[in-house]
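Lab notebook page, bench 4
Experiment: in silico fold of construct C2
Operator: M.H.
Input chain length: 500 residues
Purpose: comparison with the prior construct
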Amino acid sequence: MVKISEINNQNPWWKYGKDFVKYDRHLSKAKGDLLFFERRELETSRENIYIIRGCRQIGKTTYLKEWIYKLIENEFNPRRILYLSLDFFTSRRELRNALSYFMDANREAQNLYVFLDEITTLKDWNLELKYLWDSGITKKAHLIATGSSGGALRRKGEFLPGRGLEGNEYYLKPLTFRDFTIQTTELIRSSIESKELYDALERLKNIIKKVTINLEWNLDKIFKTVNIILPFKKELEYLFRIYLITGGFPGVINEHLRNRFANKMEFIDSATAEIFVRNILGDVVKQGKQETFARRILREIIDKYGAKYTFSKLARNVEMSHVTFIDYLELLEFSLILLILHAYDFNKQSIKFKGGKKVYFQDPFIYYALKSSLTGADVNEVIAKTQEDEEALSKLIEGIVSSHLSMTLEKPLMKERETFLWFYYDTRGREIDNVMKLNESFIGIEVKYQRKVSPEDILRIPQIKKYIILSKEDVEFQEKILIVPIEIFLSLLPKSHHNL
């Protein structure tokens, strides 16, 4: 049975009000760092269940604690807010006892908040959420749960029909380059000696907040928006080089900027990468899988990064059955570690299920940390070599682009990535890096991170009416093809409503 003292310890605002920040390990650390990264606020209502999916180290706990702080700051009664980290619970009975204690203490209240952090660590957690809804607790309480195990969230969340979960699942993913640009520019400016760059970054930040693109627009309208930002190409290129090192994990960004300002040689503390790898492999083991198999698969993905291959071939390479291999891949994909792109068949108007696939990581830092662990090289050596290797860097950027594109439209369960984003290859093996379906039309998006790019550099097929080529330097607009520098494109790309 969970102790009352443990419940009190997890809810310090019952004692300190909004001053709990001073004593809360997660929020005090985040707010005391160089940058505290803001996420979009989630609006909730009673009678619903809300689930936030995100991998470890992405800041889910910090997000919940900041939410609690803002509630109290807006004069919501702190005694009517319950936070429970399910890492400390061993059974549904313990959770139910903790909730009963809270509900009994608030019998007269009609507006409560219940935050259940890392709910997927609890066996049969979906049955407990079903009980909470069926028992009527959600009539009085906003119920928000988070989880790192995407496989458990996706599969078991599907067993909660008609209980207020529909449309209320959200992602907490690494910061996009647009997020990064808006939220880091002010701090980065403070370390810059060049007055011209200092002033330009301020103007860039103010402008970029106001403009975005919509890929459903015609290319002429997109090009006009690109031209608003084009004068800041040099500044965005500077920021993108930093983003290629850090990716979008808040802790990694802060780690790198601290080192950068202190003029240290290393990009990232190796301990940061080690913690991340331990969390990934630890979650694999918690799901009943073998770490050895996971390591084999991840090593093979890194060795063939960005290449096209069939899963049956990859399974043979790691000496696993096809079924077992797919099971591991799905676990890593649903946990938001991997991003799998299927090939699209325009004749059948569906995925080529037996065709080639491409596998990327959701964020460049995941690539660096895992490659460091799997090869034994220091993470800073991995980062440096990747930055110097034009082909490796190009493949890494392909993954960044695909990850960003997926975040523009995705919605858990109802609009997952495989329903609107693929790649394409023809019988001669020629490829288009990304094919997106926008309403009933298609757009092809190709990454050409090289100095000289022309419209002939993209494969053109009758089913696709417009193309965007993402370049290193070049800008050009023709009737059906737009060439635009990659950092400008990514800086203008918004996220879907279901990405916080």
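Observations: The two ends are 35 Å apart (CA to CA). The domain at 4-171 is CATH 3.40.50.300 (Rossmann fold).
Next step: discuss at group meeting.
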